[in-house]
Amino acid sequence: QVQLVESGGGLVQAGGSLRLSCAASRNIFVINAMGWYRQAPGKQRELVAVITAGNGLANYADSVKGRFTISRDNAQKTVYLQMNSLKPEDTAVYYCKVTVGSIVVSDYWGQGTQVTVSS
Predict the structure, then answer these.
(1) Between 20 and 30 A from 51 (CA), which of 19, 62, 91, 108?
(2) What distance in Å separates the CA atoms of residue 8 and residue 91, rounded to the nearest whole number?
(3) Are 72 and 3 in contact (CB under 8 A)?
(4) What is the 8-class DSSP label of residue 105?
(5) Other beta carbons less than 10 A from residue 74's beta carbon
(6) Strand partners, 13
(7) Distance of alpha carbon 78 from its chain centroid, rounded?
(8) Cα–Cα distance between 78 and 93 in angstroms, integer?
């Protein structure tokens, strides 16, 4: 059973920072990429940032470029999202996603963590 455990969400004032973590269970052997998505009330889930496990290539949504940084620790099978200069519009439930497999590729999602930015 693949499990993703997220942590680090919370309430912060605009301009503040938070760091999200997502740890994958040890029975995952081939991780291709890890990423963060978010879903605000009444909106569709959207990509925030994704990073490849191999070469660490990262991509970001335009709305977070320059403010958020994604990183990973392959040995710990953990992905992080450092969020700085937070804005009220960053308020959402943030979900971790891990893409695994070499022949058969599968996606797994975390349970989500709430991030609320007050103005």
Answers:
(1) 91
(2) 14
(3) no
(4) -
(5) 12
(6) 118
(7) 10
(8) 19
